[in-house]
């Protein structure tokens, strides 16, 4: 019966007892013939144990609930969400126990979902063909999937080992790639004598305030082989097309020249021979363009002063300067960057843009030099933008597909990049970004 009383009823009962019992005790003592002082002492002696019992009765549910909550919190801290509070409680505490039960159920469900997701993620990570290595503070390996264990540890577990000690036993190319902090392609000679090409990518981040680094190694030999075959097929198609376009007229003109010579018509013979020479020169220039793309030398960087560089460039192409050039000199191979810009400006003029709308913009941002070629042509569709930088891709009927590809090769040889984007008001923006020394 006492457990079913609410806390308010218990408090009212204690107050009623405290108000009624002392007068009754005093009255009973006075009737017994004792003095007022003795009556007061008797009332106190009776009331103290009674009030102590009532207080204990009133606080008992609170004390039980407090102990239960303490145990539940300790269980939650240890990851055990199965503990529930007893349902018997005064009305004021019933809501709290119900909410606690709902919280425990929600935490159990979330933990189950997390466990399922962790199991799924671990299954995906462990069975991924990409070798994954996660290192924590001090360079200790926290996670290494099956592919990483096969590649770096002959199938043995790598967790807890020092990453530097693990890669020290690897081939030089693999060791250098894993020790670096840059994405790169590299080839490794395996124990069976075969050569495998890998792509290494790495990222650093902080987990629970501690520095971590994730390294991914992907085997690229098969993909690169397929891409290489596709590229060679495209090269062969382009070369065959261009050779046929030049050799067929040359063969026809040679036959015509021989017939004119047989007839003694020497007046028309020089024109035929000149046409043969033009087609041969065109073919020579076409092949020379391919050779220059295939034999691009390493850039020879030097300090380039803008007035002299821009003045020479202006003698080779028509353009205007958009804004003032940087005050500091650039740091790049002037001959190669000049060639890249000439290719870009040639494309800008051939796009149908007005001559005075072809512009060159220079700027320094965050330690990088940005060189932009702008035009007001029709721009490019999304499909063309996605493939424009690929070698041998061209939308022009007589194009070789090497202009933008050569510009890309030059930019990347300078450890830079090239990007194409349509301008808001029409036209194309081609930006070459080159790192500059501090």
TrEMBL record:
The keyword Cytoplasm does not apply. Residues 238-438 form the Histidine kinase domain. CDD domains: HATPase. It comes from the Bacteria. It is an enzyme of class 2 (transferase). This is histidine kinase. The chain crosses the membrane at residues 38-60. InterPro entries: HATPase_C_sf, HATPase_dom, His_kinase_dom, PAS-like_dom_sf, Sig_transdc_His_kin-like_C. It catalyses: ATP + protein L-histidine = ADP + protein N-phospho-L-histidine. Keywords: ATP-binding, Membrane, Nucleotide-binding, Transmembrane, Transmembrane helix. It holds the Pfam family HATPase_c.
């Amino acid at each position: 019966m006492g457990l079913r009383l609410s806390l308010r009823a218990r408090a009212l009962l204690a107050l009623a007892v405290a108000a009624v019992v002392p007068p009754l005790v005093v009255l009973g003592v006075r009737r017994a013939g004792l003095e007022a002082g003795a009556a007061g002492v008797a009332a106190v002696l009776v009331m103290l144990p009674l009030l102590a019992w009532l207080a204990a009765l009133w606080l008992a549910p609170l004390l039980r609930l407090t102990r239960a909550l303490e145990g539940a919190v300790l269980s939650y801290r240890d990851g055990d969400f199965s503990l529930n509070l007893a349902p018997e409680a005064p009305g004021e505490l019933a809501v709290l126990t119900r909410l606690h039960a709902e919280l425990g159920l929600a935490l159990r469900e979330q933990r189950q979902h997390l466990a399922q997701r962790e199991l799924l993620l671990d299954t995906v990570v462990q069975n991924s063909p990409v070798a994954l290595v996660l290192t924590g503070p001090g360079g200790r390996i926290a996670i290494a999937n099956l592919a990483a264990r096969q590649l770096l540890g002959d199938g043995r577990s790598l967790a807890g080992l020092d990453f530097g000690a693990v890669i020290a036993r690897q081939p030089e190319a693999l060791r250098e790639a894993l020790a670096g902090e840059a994405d790169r392609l590299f080839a490794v000679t395996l124990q069976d004598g075969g050569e495998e090409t890998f792509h290494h990518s790495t990222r650093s981040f902080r987990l629970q305030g501690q520095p971590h680094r994730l390294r991914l190694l992907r085997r690229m030999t098969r993909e690169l082989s397929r891409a290489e075959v596709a590229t060679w097929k495209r090269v062969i198609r382009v070369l065959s097309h261009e050779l046929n376009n030049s050799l067929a007229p040359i063969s026809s003109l040679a036959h015509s020249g021989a017939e004119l010579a047989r007839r003694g018509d020497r007046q028309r013979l020089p024109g035929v021979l000149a046409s043969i020479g033009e087609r041969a020169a065109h073919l020579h220039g076409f092949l020379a363009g391919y050779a220059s793309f295939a034999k691009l030398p390493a850039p020879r960087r030097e300090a380039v002063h803008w007035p002299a560089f821009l003045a020479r460039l202006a003698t080779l192409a028509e353009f205007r300067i958009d804004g003032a050039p940087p005050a500091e000199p650039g740091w790049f191979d002037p001959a190669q960057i000049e060639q890249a810009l000439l290719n870009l400006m040639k494309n800008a003029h051939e796009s149908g843009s007005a001559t005075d709308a072809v512009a060159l913009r220079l700027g320094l941002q965050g330690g990088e030099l940005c060189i932009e070629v702008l035009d007001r042509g029709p721009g490019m569709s999304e499909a063309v933008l996605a493939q424009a930088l690929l070698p041998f891709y061209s939308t022009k009927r007589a194009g070789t597909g090497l202009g933008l590809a050569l510009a890309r090769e030059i930019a990347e040889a300078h450890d830079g990049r090239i990007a194409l984007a349509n301008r808001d008001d029409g036209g194309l923006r081609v930006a070459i970004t080159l790192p500059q020394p501090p």
